[in-house]
Amino acid sequence: MNKNAPLLEAQTSFTLDLLREIINQKPEPFTCSPFSISVSLAILYAGARAETRDEIGRLLLSKFEIKEDRLHSYFVGLLKEFSSQDDKFCLDTANKVWIREGLTLLPSYLDLIDRTYNGNLQQADFEEREELCKEVNDWFKENTHNLIKEILTQEDVTEESMMFILNAIYFKGKWLHEFKAKATVEDDFKINTRKRKKVEYLRKSTATEHFNYCQDNDFQVLRMAYKGDRVACYVFLPKKILSANEILENLDGSRVFSLLRNTKNSKQAKHERYIEISYPKFEIESEHDLNKILPALGMESAFDPSKADFSGMTLWKELSLDKAVQKAYIKMDEEGTEAAAVTRTAPATGGSIDPAYWVEFSADHPFFYFIVHDPTMTILFAGIYT
């Protein structure tokens, strides 16, 4: 059994909770990074105490009893793993906590952050708002390939501001098995049973051995790998047209993690010899106000100056979380792909194919997706397309 299985299931549960709450606040296509948020929460968890610590712990660990040092070593291992990528894909994460200059931080906390999270905590002069914003935004531009240019404004910095948690993530990968640009077609996307919109679809017909696939009573799940075969997009397509809320209604971390694992390890039945894929082409940049999302998920006291307890970080009793925000970007298209025929005839068969031998995966109605680092089964990105 994977020694990280409880943490992986807990992170999957957190991802589902996060998706549900984002949908409640803005029901539109979006992307987010549960991993990026989790790392920032782990940095706060290390300095939190009492109710504040318990609330963050319930978000990060779900129902599991996991020691704090195990949690930190888990994230440290992931950060090291992601920092040593090759040139087959680009994965950049940026996480940082900024604290007002003059606060005295406990040596034990500073040591932990330095040893485990590469010192991603910085004191700054909050009175110099313009300079602070420039410093923060320049740092984010550098860490997101200039895609996210502004994450902090001067209006965000007030006299009461003591601490910011800011995170951003960028991913770009080329498909391992390419889609042909000439095969892209425009067609209807069924937003619900009555409403339609026009979208461009990536299309491909190929042997199922090139794409992992599984299904249960409610979902088809497709794994589309990126070059290097270490990161993949897992698409969870309901067998019925459902709203975003309905898609997630009866899902829990255990079931979704099991589907992820089964899809990754799937071997196709003999009759499922070919798959026909139709998948929307899209580009999304999202901003999420975690000041609203995290309290709705039960993390309330960290944002309340009268209740927040970060006494493991500093002896100053009025420290609370002032602003938490995430911006995330994702793009899915044919870029970097090689020309290849995309038709409904099987490669190299020289004849017609019995329809029973086909798997049809047509993502023409609302679905959710994960971008997963397969060696660690870490959900880097998650989103819903509606």
TrEMBL record:
| InterPro entries named among the record's database cross-references | Serpin_CS, Serpin_dom, Serpin_fam, Serpin_sf, Serpin_sf_1, Serpin_sf_2
* One CC-aspect GO term: extracellular space
Q: Which superkingdom, per the lineage?
A: Eukaryota
GO MF, any single term = serine-type endopeptidase inhibitor activity
- The UniProt record lists the Serpin domain at 16-386
SUPFAM superfamilies the UniProt entry points to: Serpins
What PROSITE patterns is this protein classified in?
A: SERPIN (PS00284)
Enumerate the SMART domains for this protein: SERPIN
Report the sequence similarity comment from the record.
Belongs to the serpin family.
What name appears for this protein in its UniProt entry?
A: Serpin domain-containing protein
Organism of this sequence: Steinernema hermaphroditum
Q: What is the lineage of its organism?
A: Eukaryota, Metazoa, Ecdysozoa, Nematoda, Chromadorea
